Amino acid sequence: MKRYNGKTVIKRIAPEAGRRILVISDIHGNLSYFEELLRKVGFCAEDILIIDGDFLEKGPSSLDTLRFVMELSAKGNTHAVCGNCDGWHTMFGMTPEEDDETLAYIRYRGRGLIWDMCREIGIDPAGLEHFTETKELLKEKYAREWDFLSELPHAIETEKFVFAHAGMDPALSLEENSIEVLEHSDALMEKGYSFEKWLIVGHWPVMLYWENIVSANPIIDREHRIISLDGGCVLKDDGQLNCLIIPDADSEDFRFEAYDPFPVKKVRDPQEGGGTSYYIRWGDSRVQILERGTEFSLCRHVRTGYTMRILTKYLFSDGEYTDCNDCTDYVLPLEKGDEVSVVETTSEGYFVKHRGISGWYYGELE
Ligand SMILES: [Mn+2]
User: Fold this and answer.
1) What's the gap in Å between 193 CA and the centre of ligand 1?
2) Cα(92)–Cα(98) distance, rounded to whole angstroms?
């Protein structure tokens, strides 16, 4: 694959003092989350908006999201960087054999930019045998979109900040970093890197950095000057879309807002919470079912031996092995009157989020 060939492109901007810089990453075709979040932060013409990559794929409306990002960018105060899910223009440099691989990938995903484009012009990707001819047709029909994607920088730099989708190697200058490192470094915060300028990334859902609890809030690491933003919107059942708010081009007084679509309710009974808990997550989600029930099943996490009751609908099996969606048995400490957003309502209790942290609540809601 030639996905990451080519020269690293850096865009430099100099935001004027007094303007907010808003940063959102990993929208993943979830246009409604994006629009709601912009409303929530009061996005306006005075703000600078950085879209920190991966605005496409996985969610329901990639093409509409792309068009909205293009529309915002045309106004001059929005700047997008390319993420590993956005660079579809690179498919035009590929061979017919590679096109078949692309088609297999598109089919495996079942949704995304290419599906949206094909559907719009009346083609069903599921009915295609080869992709090359369709690819050429898409090239012609969507010239504006390809131009926009191919012109996206791989990072944006200001005097104080670097915005890249996934990571950076601090031993190299920004230009010397490869496109692959900028767009596709996994688990950046586990590498032990420190940066001179603040590095602001998405890509790796922030909850994956936690051990026993699930927090979707941005992680601000002042010692190493890294901010990690991806709240797992779409990818996690309890995910959210985060917006980092930098109040001024020079400020380190970071704040954030988040949007998720879950109904907000008030806690009626206080709950102490805490205790032993574990977070079973993507990439390490193999479990053994000890006792299968219709609503919950008692499971043992294979790697750690930790046992947890998991919603049966979160379990999936390939016949041989069973895995599960991300889940935790963490019990949230809550006060009467606390606002929580309700992710799951079960016969035993509610799986809720309180200030971005997910867990169980066993009392009544107002
Ligand atoms: Mn990504």
Assistant:
1) 19
2) 10
Q: How many domains, in total, are found in the chain?
A: 2
Q: How confident is the model at residue 281 (pLDDT cuts 50, 70, 90)?
A: very high
Residue 2: pLDDT over 70: no
pLDDT band at 1 (very low <50, low <70, confident <90, very high): very low
Phi, psi of 137 (to 5 degrees): -65, -45
Final residue in a domain of this structure, among 226, 259, 292: 259
- 120-139: per-residue pLDDT in tens? 999 999 999 999 999 999 99
Q: Which two tokens stand for residue 312?
A: 């049966």
Q: Are residues 240 and 333 located together in one domain of the fold?
A: no
Residue 28 CA, ligand 1 centroid: distance in Å? 9
| Whether residue 244 is found in the same domain as residue 271 | no
Tell me what pLDDT residue 224 has. Answer: 98
- At 197 the pLDDT is 97
Domain of 163, in residue numbers:
10-87+152-259
Distance 55 CA to ligand 1 centre (A): 9
Q: How far away, in angstroms, is 312 Cα from ligand 1 center? A: 29
- 289, with CB counted inside 10 A (0-12, 13-18, 19+), is middle
* CATH number of 83's domain: 3.60.21.10
Distance in Å from the first CA to the final CA of the chain? 54
User: How many A from CA of 54 to the centre of ligand 1?
Assistant: 5
Quote the ligand 1 centre to 121 CA distance (angstroms). Answer: 28
- Angstrom distance (rounded) from CA 185 to CA 296: 36
Single residue among 229, 259, 289 that ends a domain in this structure: 259
